[in-house]
């Protein structure tokens, strides 16, 4: 089996850094996961679409990371907050309007019992990509009720967090 590095065989799909060829047949593709969201210098990642000094992001980050076992990871050029699975993302777009960025939007998983009421509220929107999975968004550039943001993050966290993290949150 022979391994070829990126560039020796010409352009490869985004994220592929090499292929293994066995008897002139492609058998495996390796993906470079660590550098996926490092920005455009290598041409393989998504551009970073946020500023760490953004005061709204600072507030969202402090509330999200205060939840037990919560971590932050940049994915698709945006900060995401996780507890194993993703429960919030900062920045996005409305479904069907992906060319209009909402850099100060908070995307979250609403409590199922509150989703319909939130959808009826004009401040909330169905986001692109994750809206199909029940997520909603709110543009914090327009509305910054931090008590409500904390409640939305808490409800979203409870949708995905393991029982041990919820026990710490309730305890």
Structural class: alpha+beta
Which range best describes the helical content: under 10%, 10-25%, 25-40%, 40-55%, 55-70% or over 70%? 10-25%
N→C terminal distance? 55 Å
**Element-by-element helix/strand order:** EEEHEEEEHEEHH
Strand content: 25-35%
Shape assignment: globular
Question: Please, could you describe this protein's structure?
Answer:
With 171 residues, the chain is α+β, with helices and mostly antiparallel strands. Helix content is 23%, strand content 29%. The strands form two sheets. Strands 4-5-6-7-9-8 form a six-stranded antiparallel sheet. Strands 1-2-3 form a three-stranded antiparallel sheet, with no helix packed on it. Strand 5 and strand 6 form a beta hairpin. Helix 1 packs across helix 3 (146-160).
Quick recap:
With 171 residues, the chain is of the alpha+beta class. Helices cover 23% and strands 29% of the residues.
What order do the helices and strands come in, and which of them pair?
Layout: E1 2-5, E2 16-22, E3 25-31, H1 55-64, E4 71-75, E5 78-83, E6 85-92, E7 102-108, H2 115-120, E8 124-125, E9 136-139, H3 146-160, H4 163-170
Antiparallel strand pairs: 1-2, 2-3, 4-5, 5-6, 6-7, 7-9, 8-9
Give a quick set of tags describing it:
3-stranded antiparallel sheet; globular; 6-stranded antiparallel sheet; alpha+beta; 171 residues; disordered N terminus
């Amino acid at each position: 089996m022979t391994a070829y590095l990126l560039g020796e065989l010409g352009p490869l799909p985004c994220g592929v850094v090499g292929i293994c060829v066995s008897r002139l047949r492609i058998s495996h593709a390796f993906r470079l996961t660590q550098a996926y969201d490092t920005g455009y210098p290598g041409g393989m990642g998504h551009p970073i679409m946020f500023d760490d000094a953004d005061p709204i992001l600072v507030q969202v980050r402090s509330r999200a990371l205060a939840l037990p076992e919560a971590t932050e990871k940049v994915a698709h050029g945006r900060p995401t907050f996780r507890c194993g699975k993703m429960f919030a993302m900062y920045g996005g777009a409305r479904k069907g309007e992906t060319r209009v960025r909402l850099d100060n939007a908070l995307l979250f998983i609403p409590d199922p019992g509150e989703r319909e009421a939130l959808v009826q509220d004009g401040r909330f929107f169905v986001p692109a990509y994750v809206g199909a999975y029940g997520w909603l968004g709110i543009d914090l550039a327009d509305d910054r009720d931090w008590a409500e943001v904390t409640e939305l993050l808490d409800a979203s966290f409870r949708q995905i967090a393991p029982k041990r993290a919820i026990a710490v949150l309730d305890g």
